[in-house]
Amino acid sequence: MVEEEKNVILEILTEYLSPFCFTLQHLQLEDLEEKKKFRKGCEFSGLYPASVAFLLRHMPNLRRIDHSSSSVSSAIKLLHQHPSANETLGSIISLTSIDFVNIRDEILMKAVGRMCPHLKEVTFSELLHTDAISPDQLFSILTTEWPKVERVTLIKVSTNYRKAILRALGAQLSQLTFVSCELIDVADLISCAELEVLRIFFSSTLLLPSENPEEKYFPPEAFLPKLNRLESDICLSSRYSHLFEEKSTLTYLDLECCHVGTKASTISNWNEITKNWQRIHTLHIRQCTGLTMAGTKTLTLQLTKLKELSLPSGMLNYKDEREISYNLMNRFNKGPLKICLKFERSQSSLICPYQDQNGPYETSDEELSSGDSDESSHGFGTRNDLDAREDYGGWMDEIDVFNEDVEDFFEEYDDDEDVEDFFEENDDGEDDFLYW
Length: 436
Known about the structure:
Low-confidence stretches: 1-9, 373-407, 422-436
Order of helices and strands: HEHHEHEHEHEHEEEHEHEHEHEHHHHHH
Number of strands: 12
């Protein structure tokens, strides 16, 4: 066993190792979606650094270890502090990707820089640390002792440390991800001239001026001239959205909140933006204004490289829009365009005053009459419910959302007495349940 408390790192003689130990390049210790990994990163995983150090010592060609904790970076620090324990490594680790590196830990930062010369991708986090280094010290370490990393993720990194990282590494980055970062200064991105992928997640916020916060900002230099992929689950604001959205280099857009034109956006604004989106092949938008299904048809005719289109599910609340969507989906499925069209419900609590507020769901006379007919008229005798949902473009998922909310309520109040208590506590003289 590895004794963590005594920092003892055991060695296995080479003849006892399986041949795959010398050829293995990717070790997946945990199978997590990326965003779930971001959430779990600060939790203790139960995987001790000495255990990971043991793996690194005996797998010399290991390029990546997938695990949602700081165990890998801590293992590198441990090896660096005990050079006699890593003679077989030659003080070099082959890792090209490391997650959760604490930027306040000077020994850790220097250890990673010196022992991982092949590093290309890193996730920086900011945790409390005794004798924490300053932003200027961090800048010095990154510029003098670190390899040329190209892909950086910042998790809850504060403003001054964030600026130091971007000053040191910005010019060489091809991918940058912000996770739960507050008051991001757009001007800090001007140095990222080679950036191709920008992602902004988990309630990150942009720094807005106190005066004229909606006035469009135009930087003194070219802004992200090579950006081709943008993912954002925040509002980019009317001040900055044009900098990110109005780009001819874009091929992939995934936006929680899309600003095109102004608050009074119309289809003419959307037709104008297509001049910049001629390379777009994937377009996901969960909140927007001024776009109708008829406008979508016009839009897709102009976006000749579009292969996947996702629009706000609230657009299907209106019966006229649904009728157009059915025809549009048939056209995409049968025509030469072959565009995958779907409708997504926003998963964010974001409220942007620029976005359309969806009205109540409208039920057409045809839908009401079909609901009263027998099962055979629906074709359920030969087709299942999933097929029927696909015919209607996914708008029936809105009904499922309501049903799930009701089920969640009764799971929370799982016996009759709890339900009675709930209504007694919320009694205002009316039968809430009937209206709810």
